[in-house]
Amino acid sequence: MRGYEVDEHGDVYSVHLASQRFNQTKDMEIKRSFGLFFVMLIVLASQEMVVPADARVCLSQSHYFKGPCAKDHNCAWVCRNEGFSGGRCKGFRRRCFCTKLC
Questions:
Q1: Which of 19, 45, 67, 90 lies in the 20 to 30 Å Cα band around 34?
Q2: Could you report the per-residue pLDDT of 29-84, keeping only the tens digit for each?
Q3: 44/23 Cα distance (integer angstroms)
Q4: Which pTM was predicted?
Q5: Phi (first) and psi of residue 37, to 5 degrees
Q6: In 3D, which of 61, 57, 58, 50 has the Cα closest to residue 89?
């Protein structure tokens, strides 16, 4: 049939209606793409705005560690029992210093 098209469902449309339908579909795709782009832009922008503050680490010499500090693991274990978040050996005399976020 001249001037008519058949869609995938077998419905017959005039060429004019088919082109209108094509344009509407294209417009919807553009709007959907723009909406997706806008949402992604907001998500990415919100991630850039959230900047974690650099936490400072405070040191305090352990009250319970005895002897020279040879391994950070042992120092950290004693410091955790003292209520700190960890510990490490420091200095020439190798003392155990406990760490926590200030």
A1: 19
A2: 877 777 777 777 776 666 655 556 678 999 999 999 999 999 999 999 999 999 99
A3: 31
A4: 0.48
A5: -60, -45
A6: 61
